[in-house]
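fyi for ur records
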Amino acid sequence: GFAGHLSNSLVPDTKLKAPKVNFRTYTPECSDGYYLLTPKGHKVKNPGPIILDSRGDLVWSQHFDNDYGGQAYDLQVNGESLTFWLGDDRIRGHGDGHFHMLDSSYDVVKQVGAANGLSADLHEFLITPDSTGIVISFNIAQHEVQSVGRKFKDEWNQFIWECVFQEIDLETGDVKFQWIASEHVNLTSTYRTLTDPRIASMGNGDAGTQQNPFDWFHMNSVEKDEHGNYLICARYTHAVYYISGRDGSIIWTLGGKDNRFKDLTSGHALIFAWQHDARFVQFDDFTDVYTRPNQTEGFTTKLMTIFDNAADDWDYTYGPPYSRGMLLEVQQMKGDNQAYTVRLIQSYVHPQQIRSSAQGSMSLIHSTSSNESDAHVLIGYGINPVVAEYSSNGTLLCDLRFGAKKGWETGDIQSYRAFKIPTSDWIGRPFFPPAIAAKANTVYVSWSGATEVREWLLQVSAEKRAVEDGRWTDVARVPKIGFETAIVLPTECQGVRNLRVSALDKNGQLLKYGVSDVLQRGLLRHAARVGISDSGALYMSAGVMLVACASIMLFLTRVLRRHGRR
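which gave:
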């Protein structure tokens, strides 16, 4: 494998810090796209959302400070916006905050929270085609817990973490739909118990009290389908629920104690536990591994993906000894004799059999540069700093690490979810200019968030009035390499007073806001022989120096371009 260059930037204006990325496995099939991560953990300073290119080089990162350390979650492209959650994540396993929506210039244009006096949890935010937003909320609610092991009869002090999801009009903030878990699912469906001392020790006092509510359901994903119904994933009931968008009733339950499905693959499809991120997916994304059955009246067939953790902190008693992605076929026969079947179509297991006890995601990548008909599968391993890309048949294509293996399961470095999108899905156009700095005789330039830069144009000037009257000489045009490109000044250019760098797109055109501030390097080395006439013309000595500088830099430009094409 190889390492992506994510060491601290030498350009002082950026102050960007991010984990160093290593690819343990890399194939050309992974060459297109941006990775979206939200690193957090004991060893992540100034956390924030980050975008990496397909080689692991930084594209954009920003620390959004708040009263709780500025930890971001769930960075993704939602429609035309870049979205992520920010708030108080000190509540174990969930949070209290807002989702931020950023435009292409990385300005925050809207903050979205929950309605009806609730707060938005960190787990989910989806923008629907109807311009509504779906959010999850955890709130403390009084509810009997004797059915799940309450020893004392203090009915006045029995509380749970209630799970709610809302569909909200993003313009008005009005609630279009709301669903409350305890109104439809019995507490006895949970795989957690109040008497478990590990749960009781998480808060002040016994579990199930107002000081330490019982986290029995733990919703972590919601999506709305084309029929107006909702698919939700609940970690602590080991179940996925399909919810009616008309009245909130449960159409079916997959997995857990209330499962309604018959497993046609000898139980392999129903042994998921502590899972995350249930999604419906399209048949066309898996044509190499799945043949859609002939449509029969009364039958509904869907494909679904799930990230199966198979672990929860200390509990490894359910499922296989590793986490995995799962592709499932679910079928429903309608009518008086309703029947439900499920089949495991494909598993996505890392060669090292990674087991993630918390967090994680499974999503699809639709590459625009690949000749493959099927989508790729991206697995984010949550508490473990690993992101793996697979072909639809389960072959590992790329294995990205943003933390050391010795830190697995420790919380040192982690990312709740991970996504990868085609480069065409996000165009970043910052309103601020490129950052430029010099160290010794090397100029460093970067432009955080700008995705259209293909080349850098270095310009120099010996004139004091260059900033005002625009007398600049082009001395180098070099390809953009990684996040921060280094341009070495030859001897003939090292006495130049003023430097600046401009950003060029794939057509060689100057990008808007693409001219850096002027970097002033002091007096010319041969200042006694350089001056400006009354007409503004350079004396010969300065002109000769700039011509020599330009000639040498043009030669270096050709060399760098050849290097950049390797």
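The mean pLDDT is 87. thats all i got for now
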